[in-house]
Amino acid sequence: MNDLEPKVLDGKFGKTREFAALDLSGDNYLSWVLDAKIHLRANGLGQTIVDENDASPEENAKAMIFLRRHIHKALKSEYVVVDEPLVLWKALGEKYDHQKTVTLPRARYEWTHLRFQDDKSVSEYNSAMHRITSLMRLCGENISEEDMLEKTLSTFHASNVLLQQQYRHSGFKKYSELVSCLLLAEQNNELLLKNHQSRPTGSAPLPEINAASQEVNATSSRGSIHKRGRGGKRGHWQGSRKDHGARSRV
């Protein structure tokens, strides 16, 4: 199994890996710090990684087991002599805290160029929005609900300006509310498009007109056959009379 993949062995603390291990490159350091803090606090060990704490030796040992279980095996070897969770925590911070200086400018750039009109679907845009804002928040930059709403509404395509105004007048307070409406509108449009493609406008004739047309055609056909039959008989009879008269004269 990959050393970075979460894996569950049993339900006891210290026997599981609840989230991905800290990569040797430090690329996932910011999210790793957040995950580690949350899980340590959930298990009553949050004080073990803060200065001047009064954690017991047993608590420090549990926190140390947890942290070592969630770092790359090369980092375990690098810090093999460290036996205090606070010391290990600070050492990892000194090693990887520079990730903020790399991640934040990139996230800001992506935020600046994020546009609703550029994505193929609402889901794609929503995924990009959450990825970018999460990175910015991990770096300490706050992105509010108002920021996310304005970013979305202000980047509609010019051809959808009326729709944009309708959504603005709806008075959404949360980004998630706007996304729910956009997803519903997208699904309705896809359904209408599928219906149109399966039966384009005018492809199915009106049943009343079609039935009447068939009745008229059938009546006309019977009339033509009847007339031709009588005409044929009449022609044959006249011809016979003429021939009979000719033979009498002879």
From TrEMBL:
Residues 240-250 have a biased composition (Basic and acidic residues). Residues 224-236 have a biased composition (Basic residues). Signal peptide: none annotated. Residues 212-250 are annotated as: Disordered. This is Disease resistance protein CC-NBS-LRR class family. It comes from Prunus dulcis.
